[in-house]
Task: inverse folding
């Protein structure tokens, strides 16, 4: 221990004596360790951290698949949740869950995100309320469902942490709901929500609504039951369900039940991009290590005599290696300290730019485990960057090093060149990833969504009060709530149209890029192949004026008008993709179809064809879509779109005035809706871009350092060359050629590696391949230019060497 | 009759450069007794420094046998050689070779640290050694703050602090002016009189005369020996 402290003291003293070296090395390490720590903390929070549910290993996420359509992880229907799965013998408890919004009325109307669940949900998760109780099976049914559980944070924020809150009443969707309990601190299923309430099935839904699939199920396996057994038994259950209800589960659906570990529910979509990012940041750390190793090699070459003296007076090779590793550890510890501070600072920036879609980002913090990771990383980093130089430095030629007049050893040149080439190769790898994603993002941004994005304001109305009750919410329902909705939506569009600056106004249930409903239907005159199921396509509900407000072109036929109301014959508009899919090259105006639901007997006539919009997302081809008239079939919600110079405040005010008891949500420009859709792609792109820039910077420093060192080592030789007639340009060319040979080797290796590893990000690319030649050409040019600048500075210095000075120094 | 401390039999050193053999040392027979002061002289390139490096276990002989204190040392492993250097040999170099980042005290202490000696014992020995060379008042200084003569005195202190069997000095006055050179030689004389065994490479015949015996090298061979090996 005493010798370790001595080594530490010596290391600190040596580092203080060479501030330039120390700053460069510590900075490089802090960038590498800091970035790795920041990404690991995200990785840990999203993928590794406990989900907060008890005995997570026994929890499964149950969903449906339709192999006939290649669909996975679809919703389940009320009978499947309440009848079939609740009695499944391998489950200790199970419960359904779906996301809803509700209007909470206090002194004003407010839209709140709700998690609607069935009884058994909290029991399956192993969650006990802090106060009160959870939902009973009786409360699964409409009429008994006016009860609500409050999250701990809402309990503090909205109710002042009042322990007597249980039993009090709040107004959700215009109906009083009794608070029956407060959930424990920190509980969250898929994000923070204030209220949890029963889904509230009708008796009809529980008995028959097998086509009404919108619920996911969480189940706790009985002790000792394996996932494999569960899957096997669920498969048998699904087969029985299909056999018992052939009308609801046509064979061609290939319907089945899936069980996956609960963690997959939250991480399946984020795992791959996060692994790519973690890989990228580890590569940056590797570059930093190579950089510091290079600096250490140069430094230890200059310290050759010191190591020789130590060896001469009795230090063994192991002892010298230990000394050098201690010096490395001191640098790494300084780098880690700075790196962790950098990580703390960069995390807030990182989280601010992260998309909301990634669960648990709110939990990202530098926890004890993350700090332990950083410490371990520091140890590993030290070994990576310090061991090689230490091994080399300790292999000292005692006789020549101890001679009077001996200078630093010039050994290790090849190793230093190799390290620079490796840095360049890794940089190319990262630059290729970032370049491809940037190109892909550029393509995505330039994709026409099929409508005009700029100059339109949107707002979401989701009337939920008793006036607007839709019962089971079926299309074509006849409850008074349907008529109230028609009036409310029509009034809202009128109010928006009347705003000063408004050029056109309309509405749709969900704007393109926001997922809509899939609907199975029967098309008159379209012949199915034997065994082919009726088509299922995207169904959207629009108000008259919507296509004009979006500037989505009408190709043939007509738009909906105010006359297409409940009294008129049902009409429908389709997009061009629909025509291409079912009647390519033919006139479809006047063709009819009907929705494939028990209560849907009416034929709907096609009255118009509109241009395609990127309904499924900018990165996907426009799917076939049919639009129903919202005046005939009012949807659960309406996104109002106003074209023109209309402010968010003005639109909010105008819509709120239509029905003050209903909240107006998400008032934002149409561009923001698209930006949200792009955020999931922008986030990894931004990070990968930062890592690639860091890699480039570190590589430039590496190239500069090695070229400078080579020039310093060759001062006498260069002086001699100049003395015998070499021109300055010739010297520059000579130095550049030496440096660029190394860069070229790294460039080739990196490009080959990037081409081979391109498939890692292939899934995240759009409109380009992992082998895009333009991207590769661009990054090679960028890195080439950086290399020329980085080695050009020492090359110019070499050209200015005074031959007399250089020869005298020896 | 004094005990034999070093015995070289038919030692040779051959360097291979681009398949060209260079015989740096040939047929070296040399015996050094305890308490003896041996000077090795010869023109540049005669093999003096190579011989000293072999004697100090900094380099290995290509052939022949080499014993220190009756034990063969030619084929020792690098770790064992380091151990022998640390325990039995003290070096004094022409260019002092102090470590610039260590204080005078720490430089002298370094070989004792490598020996694993207890801190109190180390302190005592370092203070004694610095006293012996008259540098105890500079123990907290860095080498860069000392004159050449002072640095060489510190180097001598470092060499003797571990109480080695042999002191090897390679042109110990080569980088010093005559006054400092004489002072260092006086110090070496005192060490010899106190019983140390000294082997010194020098160009200077006047300093060589201070030794009890002189060996002259030419083209890697011992061509002349003067003086007596009896200490």
Result:
């Amino acid at each position: 221990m005493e010798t370790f402290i001595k080594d530490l003291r010596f290391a600190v003293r040596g580092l203080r004596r060479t501030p330039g070296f120390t700053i460069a090395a510590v900075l490089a390490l802090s960038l590498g360790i800091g970035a790795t720590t920041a990404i690991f903390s995200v990785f840990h929070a999203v993928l590794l951290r406990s989900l907060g549910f008890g005995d997570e290993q026994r929890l499964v996420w149950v969903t449906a698949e339709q192999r006939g359509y290649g669909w996975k992880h679809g919703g389940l229907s009320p009978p499947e949740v309440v009848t079939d799965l609740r009695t499944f013998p391998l489950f200790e408890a199970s419960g359904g869950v779906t996301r809803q919004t509700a209007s909470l009325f206090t002194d004003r109307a407010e839209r709140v995100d709700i998690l609607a669940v069935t009884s058994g949900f909290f029991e399956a998760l192993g969650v006990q309320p802090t106060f009160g109780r959870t939902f009973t099976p009786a409360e699964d049914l409409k009429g008994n469902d006016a009860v609500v559980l409050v999250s701990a944070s809402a309990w503090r924020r909205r109710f002042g942490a009042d322990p007597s809150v249980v039993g009090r009443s709040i107004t959700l969707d215009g109906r009083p709901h009794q608070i029956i309990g407060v959930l424990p601190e920190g509980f969250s299923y898929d994000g923070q929500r204030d209220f949890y309430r029963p889904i509230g099935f009708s008796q009809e839904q529980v008995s028959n609504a097998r086509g009404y699939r919108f619920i996911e199920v969480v189940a706790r396996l009985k002790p000792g039951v394996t996932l494999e057994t569960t899957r096997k038994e669920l498969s048998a259950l699904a087969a029985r369900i299909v056999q018992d209800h052939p009308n609801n589960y046509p064979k061609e659906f290939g319907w089945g039940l899936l069980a996956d570990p609960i963690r997959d529910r939250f991480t399946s979509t984020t795992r791959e991009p996060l692994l790519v990012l973690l890989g990228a940041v580890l590569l940056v750390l590797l570059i930093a290590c190579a950089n510091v190793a290079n600096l250490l090699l140069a430094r230890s070459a200059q310290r050759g005599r010191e190591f020789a003296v130590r060896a001469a007076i009795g230090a063994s090779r192991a002892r010298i290696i230990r000394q050098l590793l201690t010096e490395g550890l001191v640098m790494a510890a300084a780098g880690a300290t700075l790196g962790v501070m950098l990580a703390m600072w960069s995390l807030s920036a990182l989280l601010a730019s992260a998309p909301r879609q990634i669960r648990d980002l709110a939990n990202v913090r530098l926890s004890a485990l993350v700090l332990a990771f950083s410490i371990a990383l520091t140890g590993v980093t030290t070994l990576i960057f310090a061991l090689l130089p230490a091994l080399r430095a300790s292999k000292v030629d005692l006789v020549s090093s101890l001679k009077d007049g001996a200078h630093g050893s010039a050994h290790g040149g090849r190793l230093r060149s190799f390290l620079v080439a490796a840095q360049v190769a890794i940089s190319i790898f990262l630059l290729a990833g970032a370049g491809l994603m940037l190109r892909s993002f550029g393509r995505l941004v330039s994709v026409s969504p099929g409508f005009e994005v700029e100059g339109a304001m949107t707002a979401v109305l989701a009337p939920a009060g008793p006036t607007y009750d839709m019962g089971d919410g079926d299309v074509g329902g006849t409850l008074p709530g349907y008529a109230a909705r028609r009036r409310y939506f029509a009034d809202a569009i009128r109010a928006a149209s009347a705003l000063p600056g408004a050029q056109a106004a309309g509405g749709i249930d969900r704007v393109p890029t926001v997922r809509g409903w899939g609907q199975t239907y029967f098309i008159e005159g379209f012949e199915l192949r034997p065994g082919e199921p009726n088509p299922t396509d995207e169904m959207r509900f629009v108000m008259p004026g919507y296509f004009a407000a979006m500037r989505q072109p009408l190709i043939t036929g007509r738009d909906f008008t105010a006359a297409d109301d409940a009294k008129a014959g049902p009409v429908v508009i389709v997009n061009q993709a629909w025509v291409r899919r079912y009647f390519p090259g033919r006139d479809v105006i006047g063709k009819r179809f009907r929705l494939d639901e028990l209560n849907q007997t009416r034929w709907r006539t096609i009255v118009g064809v509109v241009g395609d919009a990127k309904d499924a997302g900018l990165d996907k081809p426009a799917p076939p879509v049919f639009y129903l008239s919202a005046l005939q079939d009012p949807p659960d919600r309406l996104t109002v779109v106003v074209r023109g110079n209309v402010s968010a405040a003005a639109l909010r005010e105008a819509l709120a005035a239509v029905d003050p008891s209903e909240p107006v949500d998400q008032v934002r420009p149409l561009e923001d809706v698209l930006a949200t859709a792009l955020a999931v792609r922008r986030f990894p792109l931004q990070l990968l871009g930062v890592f690639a820039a860091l890699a480039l910077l570190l590589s430039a420093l590496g190239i500069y350092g090695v070229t400078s060192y080579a020039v310093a080592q060759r001062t006498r030789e260069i002086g001699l060359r100049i003395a015998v007639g070499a021109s300055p340009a010739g010297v520059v060319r000579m130095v550049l050629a030496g440096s660029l040979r190394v860069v070229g080797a790294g460039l080739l290796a990196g490009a080959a590696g990037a081409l081979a590893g391109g498939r890692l990000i292939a899934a995240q690319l759009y409109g380009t391949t992992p082998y895009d030649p333009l991207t590769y050409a661009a990054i090679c040019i960028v890195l080439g230019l950086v290399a020329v600048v980085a080695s050009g500075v020492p090359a110019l210095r070499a050209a200015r060497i005074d031959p007399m000075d250089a020869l005298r120094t020896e | 009759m004094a005990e034999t401390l070093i015995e070289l039999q038919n030692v040779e050193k051959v360097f291979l450069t681009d398949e060209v053999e260079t015989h740096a040392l040939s047929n070296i027979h040399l015996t050094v007794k305890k308490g003896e002061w041996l000077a090795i002289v010869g023109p540049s390139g005669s093999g003096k420094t190579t011989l000293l490096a072999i004697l100090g276990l900094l380099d290995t002989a290509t052939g022949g046998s080499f014993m220190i204190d009756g034990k063969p040392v030619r084929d020792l492993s690098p770790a064992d050689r380091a151990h022998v250097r640390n325990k039995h040999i003290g070096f004094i170099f022409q260019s002092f070779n102090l470590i610039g980042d260590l204080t005078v005290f720490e430089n002298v202490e370094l070989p004792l640290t490598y020996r694993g000696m207890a801190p109190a014992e180390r302190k005592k020995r370092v203070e004694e050694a610095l006293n012996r060379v008259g540098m105890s008042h500079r123990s907290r200084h860095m080498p860069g703050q000392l004159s050449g003569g002072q640095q060489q005195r510190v180097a001598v202190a470092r060499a003797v602090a571990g109480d080695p069997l042999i002191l090897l000095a390679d042109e110990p006055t080569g980088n010093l002016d005559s006054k400092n050179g004489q002072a260092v030689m006086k110090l070496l004389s005192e060490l010899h009189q106190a019983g140390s065994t000294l082997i010194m490479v020098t160009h200077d015949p006047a300093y060589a005369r201070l030794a009890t015996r002189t060996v002259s090298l030419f083209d890697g061979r011992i061509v002349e020996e003067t003086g007596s090996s009896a200490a």
Notes: Chain B has a mean pLDDT of 90. The first helix of chain B runs from residue 48 to 55. DSSP finds seven helices and ten strands in chain B.
